[in-house]
Amino acid sequence: MDFFLSLVAILESTIRLSVPLLFAALAGLFTERAGVFDIGLEGKMLGAAFAAGAVAAVTGSVWLGLAAGILVSVALSLVHGYAAITQRGSQIVSGVAINFIVAGATVILGEAWFRQGGRTPALSGSARFQTIDLPFADALRGVPIIGPIYSELLSGHFLLTYLAFAMVPLTWWVLYRTRFGLRLRAVGENPGAVDTAGISVVWMRYRAVICCGILTGFAGAYLSLAMTAGFVKGMTAGKGYIALAALIFAKWRPVNVMFACLLFGFLDALSIRLQGNPLPLIGQVPVQFMQALPYLLTVILLAGFIGKAIPPKAGGVPYVKER
Amino acid sequence: MSNPYAKLPVWVDYGLIPLINLLVAFLVAGLVVLLVGENPLNAAYYMITGAFGRGEYLGFTLYYATTFIFTGLSVAVAFHAGLFNIGSEGQAYIGGIGVALACLWLDRVLPWYGVLPLAMIGAAFFGALWAFLPGWLQAKRGSHIVITTIMFNFIAASLMVYLLTRVLKPMGSMAPQTRTFDAGGQLPKLDWLMGLFGLNIGNAPFNISFLLALAAAFGCWVLIWRTRFGFEMRTMGHSPSAARYAGISESRITIIVMMISGALAGLMALNPIMGEQARMQLDFVQGAGFVGIAVALMGRSHPAGIIPAAILFGMLYQGGAEIAFEMPAISRDMIVIIQGLVILFAGALENMFRPAIGRFFAGLTARAPAARQAKGA
Amino acid sequence: MSDIAIELKGIDKRFGLVHANKAIDLTVRKGTIHGIIGENGAGKSTLMSILYGFYQADSGEILIDGRPVTIKDPNAAIAAGIGMVHQHFMLVENFTVLENVMLGAEDSQILNASIAKARVELKRLEKEYALEVNPDALIEELPVGLQQRVEILKALYRKADILILDEPTGVLTPPEADHLFRILAQLKAQGKTIILITHKLREIMAITDEVSVMRRGEMVATRPTQATSVEELAELMVGRRVLLRVEKGAALPGAVKLKVENLTVRDGRGVTMVDNVSFELKAGEIVGIAGVAGNGQSELLEAISGIRRAAAGTVLLNGSAIDVTGRADPAELRQRGLAHVPEDRHHVGLVLKFEEAENSILGYHREPTYGKGPFLDLGAIRREAEESIRKYDIRPPDPRLKTANFSGGNQQKIVLAREMERGPDVLIIGQPTRGVDVGAIEFIHKRIIEMRDQGVAVLLVSVELDEIRALSDRILVMFAGRVVGERKADAPEGELGLLMAGIDGKMEAAQ
């Protein structure tokens, strides 16, 4: 029973930790499926976290904070879009640039505006997302097995947590069951086909990039408005890259993305839990190994040792009309 | 032939356009300074005096530049083969192991010039090793080098934390770093070089690895443009299908170029470890590998461009510290913004101003005899 | 209702210094098949791209059904009832036929209803025009002929009345091409207007009602097909009598230089591209390989020259084996006397961003004459490049100029000079005159004959049957990856054409 309870606790924090990964990886899914590669997820998430934290702190409204986060993240997406789509620049270079600009700007602006060492003021009350208890969570708490699973594991998360998981079927539906999704996937595979069908490749890709911005906005807002009560400098701490890894690991498919994010979230939760505690049967595992594991797994996957990840065919290539 | 990249004079291509891109990057950075409520012109003044105002400041500027020459070359060499090595950061970090091992082993036995060659070999070896794996994985398994090198940066960071907290740390110490090296593990400063110009180096850690960096830049130039191997890697960088036709092995070039790139990144570790701190500390690379991307893009992947670009970033790092001192609202993170802006404008948006400049020059040449134009088509 | 479907008036288009279309007038009558013929680069594709809204004309007017229209993008073209089948298919390979047909013409945000409707409509079109194709098949699993059918269905699904086909038979086997022509005839019978762009005279004569000829951006003539002849059209296309007779003496074949036995090559997907091919190539002879593009010629050249791995078979060069199934290395083959002028000079034969001099040593850059040890001697390289510039009359004569700045003919000469001037035993040439101006063609043909007369064994691949017939001493015909026949150089054109279609005329006649 003790083992069961600590398993529930680990899984509970798995869910908590995988939410930003899930938002960001789905964000990446939209743009990469449309043929625009994005290693700037990290920067966008960080920018959104800062804007959300700052605006929520100033206005006292969590919703205005969320809106600001999304706005900033969409704006950064548009910069990436302008470089990658309109100017046909290198998508990788542009992503790298955005990561740096944001990493520097959040610290400079945060320090200049709030003077708390790069933090935004701590949020409380209506300036922060509150957890939601599912119906009957208290009543069921005592029931064995089901009680902890329902009341601890599934209940008591933030609105954004439930939204993140709801985004998975929604993303799948948009991608495979709507006109927008059909065109979006087409533009990532063969933009020429989309162009000759009378659809603007540029506008399609910009829309995909904006979708990415909105979702990274949620990811960032979750960090500073829900998981933590305020922005801390560099708080994404590589989560954007892990999300990227999860996206590749999931072979650019929405449902796989969820499982990849849960796996990487689980590794994270486990490494926090295991700090200093030996693992049964294996013994002491260095925490650094657990931290590196998502990256190691992605490298191994990319090397084709576990299946093969084939990116969208037109990914990373600016569209130029052929004569 | 509706080519927006029509031919421009060489000095425009390699001089004017990069300069305009740089200028725009700085203008945007100036806007950020305004946003923070400071005067950008004052900031620029502090920056320049802070970077060049005294011998000591210049010494710091060149100390940073040394690091960036190595990482800039690392990124540039890979660019020439069409490879984007984002992993210079991790390779430099791992390269530090080689330097540290050589120093820990021999610093009490040999003088610095005895330790240095071994430290160089060690740095290059470990850096190359860390780049070999992504290179090998791309060449033999088809994994994309950009993604793998990003992953390897994180793996390197975890590995180094592990090593510095558990393996290389002296017994009883709490700080995650090696012991301080004796004289054999410390590189001499270039005070005499500064002295030639009547400058006093003060406390600046400007050391002989600067000369090694210059030598490496020359070596890279020879490698890229004067050797058969350089010819092969440029062929592959421009056209992999032409390389295959010419009998150039793609996997061989990928692996070797990545190892050269990693070795150059690794050599960077000499500068902070043996040149300044006389020990290996946690996170001693401090993002220099990423600065290398900006330096390579700005220097157009040419050693002759990389050296001034590296000095410019050295100026930003040293002068940035001075700004931070004079203007508390502006911390050294300002450099990270500028670095990002340079990467954006000199890299991803490098062609933004080209059509306008092209039109301007087309307007100029339109007055020249039309006959000269007729030869095209 | 007028009986004119399309009228173009004074269409003019420049790309920088290239005047692609010069004040073009064109009238296409409703319910006819109108051919537009011209050499590569004559401006046909540009004109059609303007009609389809891919480019905007600098000046001029477009009238559809007598009404002036502006076609600013493909959308406007589709709305005006114009559909286009591109030379390179515009299909999403991992989508189904249905999804491809629907793409861009879905009539609701949510797909379910559109899919149901498209399925019904597709069924109807299939029946009406006899265009069967499984709507749920993935494009990447369909043969080329069927992929093209999907392109036609796409246009019909969008209710196109005017159908433009850009070089539709380039990728088809002759039976597939025949099938396409039957489809086109059927479409015409249903009242559709068809514009057929091609550079193949035979197709024009076989199927069109009217034909317009373009040359160097100008529309030079329009004729009713019945009132013209292949000879007249050929003359109009080129602007002077085509004399594809190259002066050459009889071949004096010597020892066997290249012996190919049972060579089989598969592509990345495991499809057999070269199927058990065997032949010999002797010193002092030119063997031409004829065939419709895509019948394995390219793969054959690549396998022999070591660029592509073969699945099985042996190749002997000067009597010793080339490890074609294993580690054959183009660099090593060059040393052993095998030179290769590749089909695609832009992506394979040259590095366009290199200086001319650098390209003049590509593949030979390891030779000791170009420097000591690992180093290159730029001076020596440029001096030698200057020499071949003189000998091959490459213009402009500047070894330091970027290769991209040379014209097609001069670029090809750079490749030829590099591969011919080192005294090879075997010379493999793919498409020697593709995209090359007329003046350079003569020069190149002469040089190839000279090589033969010096005792070089020449293997020539070209999709231009005329070129093969003019240069070769023996002709091998490839069809579906196999060598289906060998003929003398003077074999009648019709017989070769049948062989290229996979039909052995001689055998059938004998039966």
UniProtKB/TrEMBL annotation, chain A:
Keyword set includes Transferase: no
One CC-aspect GO term: plasma membrane
UniProt keyword list: Cell membrane, Membrane, Transmembrane, Transmembrane helix
Membrane topology field: Multi-pass membrane protein
Main location, first listed in the record: membrane
Residue ranges that the Swiss-Prot or TrEMBL entry lists as coiled coil: none
Intracellular or extracellular location(s): Cell membrane
Transmembrane region(s): 48-80, 92-114, 158-176, 206-225, 288-306
Highest taxon listed in the record's lineage: Bacteria
Gene Ontology molecular function terms on file: transmembrane transporter activity
Name this polypeptide is given: Sugar ABC transporter permease
Organism, as annotated: Xaviernesmea oryzae
Lineage: Bacteria, Pseudomonadati, Pseudomonadota, Alphaproteobacteria, Hyphomicrobiales
From TrEMBL, chain B:
GO CC annotation: plasma membrane
Pfam families: BPD_transp_2
Topological relation to the membrane, as annotated: Multi-pass membrane protein
Alphabetized InterPro entries for the sequence: ABC_transp_permease
UniProtKB keywords: Cell membrane, Membrane, Transmembrane, Transmembrane helix
Bilayer-spanning residue ranges: 12-37, 57-79, 113-133, 145-164, 204-224, 253-274, 280-299, 306-324, 330-349
GO MF annotation terms: transmembrane transporter activity
Keyword tRNA processing listed: no
Subcellular location, record wording: Cell membrane
Matching CDD domains: TM_PBP1_transp_TpRbsC_like
PANTHER family linked: ABC TRANSPORTER, PERMEASE PROTEIN, GUANOSINE ABC TRANSPORTER PERMEASE PROTEIN NUPP
Protein name: Sugar ABC transporter permease
Species of origin: Xaviernesmea oryzae
Automatic annotation (TrEMBL), chain C:
CDD domains membership: ABC_Carb_Monos_I (cd03216), ABC_Carb_Monos_II (cd03215)
Membrane topology: Peripheral membrane protein
Any one GO molecular function term: ATP binding
ABC transporter domain segment(s): 6-241, 258-505
InterPro entries in the cross-refs: AAA+_ATPase, ABC_carbohydrate_import_ATPase, ABC_transporter-like_ATP-bd, ABC_transporter-like_CS, P-loop_NTPase
SMART domains, per the entry: AAA
CC terms in the record's Gene Ontology section: plasma membrane
Subcellular location: Cell membrane
Keywords linked to the UniProt accession: ATP-binding, Cell membrane, Membrane, Nucleotide-binding, Repeat, Sugar transport, Translocase, Transport
Taxonomic superkingdom: Bacteria
Coiled coil: none
Family, per entry: Belongs to the ABC transporter superfamily.
Name by which UniProt lists this protein: Heme ABC transporter ATP-binding protein
